[in-house]
From TrEMBL:
UniProt cofactor(s): Zn(2+)
The name this protein goes by in its record: Unannotated protein
Primary location group: membrane
Biased composition, class Low complexity, residue ranges: 222-245
Length: 245
């Protein structure tokens, strides 16, 4: 199954993967009464979230590309120069920040207090906005890869421990996810969350560790500069900013 042809939104290319459409279909099937509203909210807030990343990355001189996939969105960009951990954190936080603010504004217009959960769920629309906006936004700030908070943690650790900071962030994320998964399996009321913990664990271990390993191999096998005394030139690399859908 091929991707939907790339669209352009506010000047950024947006590619919708088949996995994202499958995810929306599952949401609708899960609860036909409210599922379609939830699917619309997820689509809108996912796009707003990734546009937050893309706008921040563009301010660094990059040309971001947005993709929506199963359970996740991503904004990939190649900065024209090496970026600092603070700049990387700024790009990572921009997505959930815009998502949270938009959700709170919509709830405010609806005269719904986001801190009053019973009031929130008096309306289906308010409920899906609350979940797809502020709730998903704050969850995305948790310091666990591949969430945006995990990228902030990874950048901070890499600034302190350049050679191993990223691996430590992956190991920490996997350990926390594994612990949460065990708890969900042992607690009957939370057992339905176990598959999500397993999927998150796979997202952490499978795509991230090999990606860093391949990058290490490329650097190790890169030919030396013609001038042996010359300073090596740092090459811009693609900085994926992963987020949950």
């Amino acid at each position: 199954m091929t991707d939907v042809p790339a669209l352009r939104l506010l000047g950024f290319p947006v590619r919708v993967k088949p996995g994202f459409l499958a995810f929306l279909a599952l949401v609708i099937i899960w609860n036909p009464g409210v599922g379609w509203k939830f699917a619309i909210a997820i689509t809108i807030f996912s796009l707003v979230h990734e546009l937050g990343h893309a706008t921040a990355a563009k301010r660094l001189g990059a040309q971001p590309e947005i993709a929506l996939d199963f359970l996740a969105g991503s904004t990939r960009y190649t900065p024209p120069r090496p970026i600092t951990p603070i700049e990387r954190a700024w790009v990572a936080v921009s997505g959930p920040a815009v998502e949270i603010v938009l959700g709170l504004v919509v709830l405010g217009v609806m005269r719904v207090n986001p801190l009053d959960v019973p009031q929130v769920f008096e309306s289906q629309v308010a409920g899906v906005v609350w979940i797809a906006g502020p709730v998903f936004g704050f969850l995305n700030l948790l310091p666990i890869l591949p969430l945006d908070g995990g990228h902030v943690l990874s950048g901070a650790l890499e600034s302190i421990w350049p050679s191993h900071g990223g691996i430590v962030a992956i190991a920490f994320s996997a350990a926390v996810t594994l612990a949460v998964g065990v708890v969900t399996l042992l607690e009957p009321a939370a057992r339905w969350l176990a598959p999500f913990a397993l999927m998150l664990l796979v997202l952490q271990i499978w795509p991230l560790v090999p990606q860093r390993t391949r990058g290490t191999r490329r650097r190790a096998t890169r030919p030396a500069p013609a001038d042996a005394d010359a300073e090596p030139v740092a090459e811009p690399v693609a900085e994926p900013v992963a987020s949950e859908a």
